[in-house]
Amino acid sequence: MPLPLKDYLEFNSPIHISWRSGLPNDPFIDRLDIARVVNQRIFLLEIPDKMFRVRITDMFEINYEKFMKNDIEKNEFYVDYTNGFVYFHTSKEAETLSIVYKGRGLILYPSTRIVHFDGTDSTETLHEIIEKSKLQVQELIDRTDNYEEYLKKLVIAINNSNHATDQALIATQKADDATKLVNDAYETTVLIYQPFVNTYDEIAQKFPYPEVGWTTQVYDTGIRYRWNGKAWIPIDALGGNVPLASEVINGLMSKEQFTKVKNITKFVNEKTIVFIIPKDILEGVQDPEVEFEWDGEIIDVKSLVSIKGQQPTPVQIQKSSNFKDWTDITVNPLTIDADNHRNNKEFTLIDTKVKEGDVFRLYIPSFNVDAQSLSVNVKIALNDSLN
Fold first, then answer.
1. φ and ψ at 237, to 5 degrees?
2. What is the CATH number of domain 192-262?
3. Where would I find the beta strands (DSSP E) of 84-213?
4. What Å distances lie between residue 294 and 92, 354, 355, 357, CA to CA?
5. Residue 8's pLDDT is what?
6. Whole-structure pTM value
């Protein structure tokens, strides 16, 4: 469920940040932004989660190093996970794209804190520019109302000077174009957020006399609507009404991605500790000692050598929670028989529970080992994958 819009409307600090925790009681929200590329980038409505990544059909995300050193290719994009910008190749300019991600929340900047930089010095804040634009729009509208009177004066000026005529016509055209452009930009882009409503039918009841730019969100569908002067137009969806994907239709992900995710096995929730003794295998405790960072359960152990020995190679895998008290995780040592690369199956796992912070090490109980290049794998299933 998206956060209520009223949480976004208070600007008591210079920068207003509204984050979700990502925990089960406050999860990140599935987002589908449909936006047009402008100046080779798209501004996401929320800050995306870097773990889930940003997903765009038939395109690949590049990292920061490649973005800084090389030009973006046509099928590539780069994501600024700090500010919520997605950058594209020049060929994507003006193209409308569907972008899927998990929204962490919003970073809202007051217009009085955003400064325009003209290349030499910081001159105006965004608030000042907006206020000036509104005054200029009204001034241009007033000028348009008196267009006939100005036109008569311009005709008189034409009779006095051809040069003045040319300049006056150019100025008139620029004024007319500027009026249209500024007015269109304001009318079509301004968003004035209003409190959310529960259903679409409540919009007309709650806002009987809307102004251009008024924007509200419908709680039960997650769709946001904007008043364009004639009707309430849907402008985006915040996850509530986006269908789930299946093998035959696209939704929160493409059907191809759904099929790929469906085929992912439980083994993605398994971690493996790997020990490597690169050359001679000596008796006693081996370095290093490895700390495991999750709760789980040991489900399998394996050992192998790249150079076979004429004597058996026994390995004891030990576990400790305090670096002092060590216990074996098998009843008998994990043994690679003579003239073999891999261990035999004559071992039994014990004490398989693993807690976050448990430490593992290897112990070689025999000094007669002549094999070389030993590696040992301890496979652990995380608790989430066991439930």
1. -125, 130
2. 3.40.1620.70
3. 85-88, 96-108, 115-117, 122-125, 192-193
4. 43, 8, 6, 7
5. 44
6. 0.36
